[in-house]
Automatic annotation (TrEMBL):
It comes from Olea europaea subsp. europaea. This is Rab3 GTPase-activating catalytic subunit. Residues 1-83 form the Rab3GAP catalytic subunit conserved domain. The lineage of its organism: Eukaryota, Viridiplantae, Streptophyta, Embryophyta, Tracheophyta. Transmembrane segments: none annotated. One of its GO terms (molecular function) is GTPase activator activity. It holds the Pfam family Rab3-GTPase_cat.
Length: 86
């Protein structure tokens, strides 16, 4: 989450869920818009909502998102200790 926030300034939980857990993102099939970007390209807006599981009050993912700071992966403490590997 921290690396995602660092790589995508201004992102929201819904952006992370669409990338990390697509099954928890429910697209509205009729609400897709294509808008022109400032560089002349097209930007696709897909409208939808989080799954019921993700919308529940007190959802762990939502709580972790609130606490996560935008830290690039290269600056994060490794979770895997190579010295302990078999």
């Amino acid at each position: 989450m921290q690396a995602f926030k660092a790589a995508n300034p201004g992102c929201i939980l819904e952006d992370f869920v669409r990338w990390h857990s697509p099954s928890d993102w429910m697209e509205n099939e009729t609400n897709t818009e294509v808008n022109e970007t400032s560089d002349g390209g097209d930007l696709l807006y897909v409208k939808g909502q989080l799954s019921r599981r993700m919308q529940k009050e007190g959802n762990l993912w939502r709580e972790l998102w609130k606490m996560a700071k935008p830290v690039p992966a290269v600056r994060q403490t490794p979770l895997y200790d190579e010295d302990l590997a078999v």
